[in-house]
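pinned: reference chain
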Amino acid sequence: MTIIEKILAAHSGKISVVPGEIVDVMIDVRLARDFGGAGVVKNLLANNLSIDDSNRTFFTFDCNPTGSDQQYAANQQKCRMFARENNIMVFDINAGIGTHLAIDEGLAVPGSTLVSTDSHANILGAIGAFGQGMGDRDIAAAWARGAVWFKVPDTVKITLQGKRPPMVSAKDIALSLLKKFGADGLLGYAVELYGEEVENLTLDERITISSMATEMGAIALLFPPSAAVLSYCQSRSLNPFEPVYADRDTAYRHHHEMNLEDFIPSVSLPGQPHHVVSVEEVKGTKIDSVFIGSCTNGRMQDMVEAAMVLKGRKAAPGVVLKIVPSTDEIWNACMKEGLIAVFKSAGALISNAGCAGCASGQVGQNGPGEKTVSTGNRNFEGKQGKGEVYLSSVATAAASAIAGHITTADDIPEQPSVFVSSGRQEKSSSGSITKREKRNTILRGKVWLVLQDNIDTDMIYHNRHLAVTDLKEMGKYAFGNLKGWEDYPLRSEPGDILITGKNFGAGSSRQQAVDCFRALDNQAILAESFGAIYERNAINAGFPVLTYTDLGDLDLKDRDTIVVDLEKGTITNNKNNKTVSIGKFSEVQMKIYQNGDLLLL
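pinned: its structure tokens
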């Protein structure tokens, strides 16, 4: 078996599992953040559910630890009050990013399982553990049952051959993988990484690479634990553990070989993480701000690298530099080692540990027209504000802050770029869940063809509306950030069915991206493929999502009436009576659909 197959088998009471099998997985570590945590509490209270094991259950306030937004502050307090009543430990606003804390506090170890409302929980692949981001309904189920269902994924093996060039960082490796595989080339797969240089990667470097699995559509990027990683985890954990490695005769779905010597310093162009180019192609682009931190590049090794570039230098005039360590332990280490003084001398704003610029709330957003270089993992339009975000390595980000334009650490000019006038001007409750009578498995409705690939959750439901918890209010924000479809709530009619392209719902774990269509009384969404977390959120809400291969024979047009058979897996165009096969409901999906919600099983 592969690494993920062994972990899932061990945690589902099975000797072995195979790809496609749906298993009930016991979860060792169960996290909820300030983003999503209040939704978990709401679901538990609304369904009178208790906590399975408070010793495995934690809140982590990392998305907006300053509580600068009133709704975040209110949600944090709801979580604190629930934690007090249920003996749940809270890693509060001073602690840092939850997934990092899980590793550093020894909660998660190689071979363990973890779920979180953080869509980058698969960062646990850095230590050879299984981590998954899930929606608040999933997490509530894990807190109440101690286990959640999961479909065993196929595994892809990637071997990185050759020697890593001196200027190529772990972030450049991640961006190079993203460039090759795109947003959906690894969709739904677990990935194992091998190679001589891979074995030598530090824990911090592995975290950087694993944290971008979500951007590739992967379930997880898993590293076989090295001796150094095992030593670190053993020093942090109070309990013994056995690392998990793939069998030598494992059969992988695919095996890709890439040469590290071909890798170069890279950046992602604004809009989508997989639009990766060499730094040379955008070198000289004037910037307004730089953010160094996030779960991708907020470790101590990242802080040291930033300090090496910034020491004795200052950020260019007018360039805002923000630096945020991922945990309080790292923050204090930066203080002890003199790095904080280096950062302050360079003109940086340093915030308490957390997600910071990636989540936009902690250290502020960027404004319209603002160009930002970020070490985060996402640069979707609107993700960090109204500006444009380039993703880069720590060294490139720090060098660009000093230069005032995008550049590399070996090409920082003596005099920084300065700004010149361009003449530019600025032109509650989601409702109780009601168990239903047997639901109709044949759906009839008018179709909307939204034939685009990689429609991410920020396009579906913008993050500025994430504080909305009332289902009735969510519908008016559906597709509010998808160009050409901003008025969809006004055009949509009850019973409508959406048909879209590949990787629909890529991105975050926000439940609202599903619930906004439920609020509009849309019946279903058909796509060539779905983002893994989005698909789970829809299934668990009892909202039909189905996949298709080719609908060309149907000759569909907008507002044609179609009939979808959930059991048979067919779709028929009423206009011409043509029918094609699509993916039908799995047993667990049908069970949840008929009950109306995961929490009513």
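why pinned: Residues 425-433 have pLDDT under 50 and may be disordered. The first helix runs from residue 3 to 10.
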